[in-house]
Request: fold
Amino acid sequence: MCGGGGGGDYAAQARADEAARQARIREGMGRIDQSFKGFDESFYKGRESAYLNYANPQLDQQFKQQQNSLAYNLARAGLTASSEAARNAGELQRQFNLARSTVAGEAKNQSNQARQQVEQNRSELVNQLNATGDTQLAANASLTRANNLAQTPGFSPLGQIFQNTTGLLGNAAQASMWDKNAPGLSAYGFPKTGGGSSSTIVKT
Reply:
């Protein structure tokens, strides 16, 4: 009888301990949810906007520099009003549009990465809480992780976006200036510059 009573006491104690553990887990879940409540759709949209605000000015600057380089090279070659100028300008604009789409795609990627990191960290905290039943540990760890996740990461700067196609004619013309034996623009189907003839080169 005593053994049976003791077993009943142990079972009751086990049930009480488990009930207390579940209560701590519920409390810990509340602390985790409180720490992570700021990670909503507006947060992820903000991460996307942060990348756009970082990358687009770099892209615009490169585009402007490339436009200036193209204008200079074409003017030096006497091709400012030519079909070649239009072709180069069109190619530059095509590359710019493609780069703008690439930047927008990377902004979405940054947002998705942030979402994945938040979900992964929250899952790890929940698993830790279920394993330990430690409410205070869950509260402290979730606050630390949430603060870290909320920080805007250091984005990588854009590399050289535009291919070196628009400087081709200008580079060739420059070579012919320095080396009389260089083919210059004639390598691309144009007569050599010089002697004031540049103003008559293939203007269409």
The chain has five helices and no strands.
